[in-house]
Amino acid sequence: MNDTRHWTASTIDDFVYWISSDFTAQIETKLEAEGIDQNALALRLKVSPSYVSQVLNDPGNLTLETAVKYSRAMGKKVALVTYDDSDPDNEKGPINADLFTACWERLGKPRDLFDLAAMRPLGRVWVVYAQSEPRVPPKRERIKFRKFNNFAATSQQAWVGSRYA
């Protein structure tokens, strides 16, 4: 039998290693783009250069706290995203973080669902219009979605959080 599964499908540790490596690759790309070496990053983080090297070269034990610290040191943010790509057993492997970044940038870098709701197509380009202050809807107010050319966005201002659905 020919096993065509992605190598990260074998174990959770493999999957975690891939995600961690994807993250450190983004940090290394930012370092190169800005001409920053690992010593300078170590100074920003207030850690030893050998620790920076260890994290970047073997990110298997990367914690969320470390990811946030490295992101902030590089003037970036980090998000942990779950998604459904119709591959629950990870046969095809995880989606590269650069894909999520590219999609977010192509959409005009919306900050929240309010920005997303304010987006309007302009030819083949999406435009984000500034929103007024967000409002918190009553508990039972439902969020309604509209579809824009295979892109879902809220049709009204709505706040999504743990207390509202």
What does this structure look like?
It is a single chain. The chain is mainly alpha-helical. The protein folds into two domains: 7-85 and 92-99, 434 Repressor (Amino-terminal Domain) (Orthogonal Bundle); 107-154, no CATH class. It contains six helices and four strands. The strands form two sheets. A two-stranded antiparallel ribbon has the order 1-2. Strands 3-4 form a two-stranded antiparallel sheet. A hairpin with a 2-residue loop joins β3 (145-148) and β4 (151-154). α2 crosses α3. The longest helix has 23 residues, at 12-34. It is flat. 8% of the residues are buried. The model is unreliable at 128-165 (pLDDT under 50).
| CATH topology assignment of the largest domain | 434 Repressor (Amino-terminal Domain)
- The CATH homologous superfamily of the largest domain is named lambda repressor-like DNA-binding domains
Strand content: 5-15%
Residue runs with pLDDT of under 50 for 5 or more positions: 128-165
Task: Output mean pLDDT.
Answer: 76
Helix content class: 25-40%
Widest β-sheet, arrangement of strands: 1-2
What distance separates the N and C termini? Answer: 46 Å
Q: Report the order of strands and helices.
A: HHHHHHEEEE
Please indicate the count of domains.
Answer: 2
Separate helix tally: 6
The computed structural class is: mainly alpha
